[in-house]
Amino acid sequence: MANAPETYGGRRQGEIYRAGAAGRTPAIPVSPEKLAEAARAVMDADAFEFVAGGAGGDGTIRANRDAFERWRIVPRMLRDVTRRDLGIELFGRRLPAPVLLAPIGVQTIIHAEGELAPARAAAAMGLPFILSTAASRTMEEIAAAMGDAPRWFQLYWATTGR
Fold this sequence. Notes:
Elements lengths: L7 H14 L10 H11 L2 H8 L6 H11 L18 E3 L2 E3 L20 H10 L3 E3 L7 H8 L4 E3 L9
Parallel strand pairs: 3-4
Antiparallel strand pairs: 1-2
């Protein structure tokens, strides 16, 4: 394994291990609660509530968090992990990881580029970006930013206000 090709996961794992051994914590928190605290500290209060909030009493947020918390990382020690594959097949397309960028509308309240920056990031990683019906950028702008990368659209049917 000494001559194993280095992967992003292996490099990142090594960085985290070495930093931890030296007593350094990550600049970006990995705890969802601490990440939210850091975001709240630098964001406009209304923008934070829009991004962090959920419908109704936030029951779906709690249910999603509870479901996520049931997953565990299982260490695989003393095994050859030189070739890691987190990829999945979804709707007939091979993706590098089971990750999608969820639709969040009106992202210009967070950053001037709005949805363009996360769309480019998703494209760079080969992950699907889901454009919200309430996006502050057009489908055409997102498509131009992403090239051939996978992208989806979240459609909310508008009501007529009867």
